[in-house]
Design brief:
Elements: H1 7-19, E1 41-44, E2 53-57, H2 59-69, E3 78-82, E4 85-89, E5 92-93, E6 98-102, E7 106-110, E8 119-120, E9 136-137, E10 141-144, E11 147-153, E12 156-159, H3 163-171, E13 182-185, E14 188-193, E15 195-198, E16 205-208, E17 211-216, E18 219-221, E19 238-249, E20 254-256, H4 261-267, E21 271-283, E22 287-291, E23 299-319, E24 327-348, E25 366-387, E26 393-406, E27 412-415, E28 419-425, E29 434-435, H5 445-464
Parallel strand pairs: 1-3, 2-4, 3-6, 4-7, 5-10, 6-11, 7-12, 10-13, 11-14, 12-15, 13-16, 14-17, 15-18, 17-19, 18-19, 19-21, 20-22, 21-23, 22-23, 23-24, 24-25, 25-26, 25-27, 26-28, 28-29
Antiparallel strand pairs: 8-9
GO molecular function: polygalacturonase activity
InterPro entries: GH28_Enzymes (IPR051801), Glyco_hydro_28 (IPR000743), PbH1 (IPR006626), Pectin_lyas_fold (IPR012334), Pectin_lyase_fold/virulence (IPR011050)
Keywords: Glycosidase, Hydrolase, Signal
Length: about 475
């Protein structure tokens, strides 16, 4: 099994990335984000007895420090400073109006004892743990029903030490679903920036049922063969911004979700108004950006631009299945550069994986108004593998200004989809060959441009100015 990432690996990645052809202005290794919020009160974790030797368990120190800082929540909030050192800890909770700040050489280490990650109830939109029936282990850094949370620093590191969890998963010895590295639930006003996240046991950053979330200038790393180590998974959340991130993990770099089958349909909280910009990365088990497969509460108004994926199995993947219900609509991908990617665009209409046997197989998802514009790629095996659902609605799929150097003799394979295309090389499959005339603009990229300018140059601008 491939080893976990270490700080030496991180430094090598940063050195490569700063000089590579994939570098872009505003990458996580080139500038810092200032949240604009100054906390009038600050303490250091050592004031509560923490020892940064990588051996001493500091869970109580983190819990006590945050409990103390909660008393300043109505006085402008407070900051918990984590200095240089290796700070071993189990799961701990955040509070509102808090900044968790990591120094440049600070490393928060997740305990390798599963007892230090308590078991909590499953998410209501999932009905059970994602991997196993019943509860799930709580994330290393957790928060619920919070306002104004900042997790940031001078490129410090949060390391989940996930290899032991990956072994338990592969060996089938888990009793509960693995924990995330960071999970915030039912929270508003979240900023995560200027940090490196390593070796998550499961998904790395998971905002669920949240509003106004900004993730910027972060690096997320896990071995390419590590199971289900997604990078950032916005889940039933709205007004989410993900910018200038480098992600290399064992599954989807970003996966947009909204609940699982009948539980997601019943909970009915969509994931909407999501902006992704300046994403660079690779994955050999997932996609650069995925939607689903848990999308039963609906996913809409997603705008992703300036994306660069390399040495990956898929670039974009929309995953769903009969029984999911819900919808994926008004999705816009633009300015995407690919190098050595097996499948550029993938629709998976038979993903399967149901929480139980109570789902309705007649609950078919509706996929519509999905636009792919300004794609360029070299060493691509398949341009598009678009598998809809018989009797389902995969409509108004639009391809525009796409040039892919494809090595396969069958560059496109489509079933149960309908759409339009303009200036696409190689020529797309028959169901997508109808030309994009002005009367089709409302079904293609024009509506996405309108959404981008109206939503994020006004309401969304407040989020992006944090």
């Amino acid at each position: 099994m491939r080893r976990s990432f270490t700080l030496v690996d991180v430094l090598l990645v940063l050195a490569f990335f700063s000089d590579a052809q994939w570098a872009v202005n505003g990458s996580s290794h080139c500038k810092q984000t200032n949240s604009g919020i100054v906390r009038p009160h600050s303490v250091t974790i050592t004031e509560f007895g923490a020892v940064g030797d990588g051996v001493t368990l500091n869970t109580k120190a983190f819990q006590n420090a945050i409990f103390y800082l909660n008393s300043f929540a109505d006085k402008g909030g407070a900051k918990l400073f984590v200095p240089a050192g290796r700070w071993l800890t189990g799961s701990f909770d955040l509070v509102s109006h808090l900044t968790l700040w990591l120094d440049k050489d600070a490393v928060i280490l997740g305990s390798t004892n599963s007892n230090d990650w308590p078991v909590v109830d499953p998410l209501p939109s999932y009905g059970r743990g994602r991997e196993l029936p019943g509860g799930r282990h709580r994330s290393l850094i957790f928060g619920r029903n919070l306002t104004d949370i900042i997790i940031t620093g001078d490129n410090g590191t949060i390391d989940g030490q996930g290899s032991i969890w990956w072994d338990w998963f592969r060996n089938g010895t888990l009793d509960y679903t693995r924990p995330h590295l960071v999970e915030l639930m039912n929270s508003t006003g979240v900023v995560i920036s200027n940090l490196t996240f390593l070796n998550s046991p499961f998904w790395t950053i998971h905002p669920v049922y949240c509003s106004h979330v900004r993730v910027k200038n972060v690096t997320i790393l896990a071995p390419l063969d590590s199971p289900n180590t997604d990078g950032i998974d916005p889940d039933s959340s709205d007004n989410v911004s993900i910018e200038d991130c480098y992600i290399s993990t064992g599954d989807d770099l970003i996966a947009i979700k909204s609940g699982w089958d009948e539980y997601g349909i019943s909970y009915a909280r969509p994931c909407t108004n999501v902006v992704i910009r300046g994403l660079i990365g690779q994955t050999q088990l997932g996609a650069g950006i995925a939607i689903g497969s848990e999308m039963s509460g609906g996913v809409s108004e997603v705008h992703a631009e300036n994306l660069q994926f390399f040495n990956s199995v898929m670039a974009i993947n929309i995953k769903t299945s009969p029984g999911r219900g819900g919808y994926v609509r008004n999705i816009y991908f633009s300015n995407v550069t690919l190098d050595h990617v097996d499948i550029a665009i993938r629709f998976t209409g038979q993903f399967g994986e149901h929480p139980d046997g109570f789902f309705d197989p007649k609950a078919l998802p509706k996929i519509e108004r999905i636009t792919f514009k300004d794609f360029a790629g070299e060493y691509i095996k398949v341009a598009g593998l678009l598998e809809g659902i018989e009797g389902g609605n995969f409509l108004n799929i639009c391809l525009s200004d796409i040039t892919l150097n494809v090595m396969s003799e069958s560059p496109w394979n489509c079933s149960y989809v309908q759409g339009y295309s303009h200036l696409v090389t190689p020529e797309p499959c028959e169901p997508l060959r109808e030309k994009i005339f002005p009367e089709h603009y409302v079904d293609c990229y024009h509506i996405s441009n309108q959404f981008w300018h109206s939503n994020f140059h006004s309401r969304g601008a407040r989020l992006l100015s944090w």
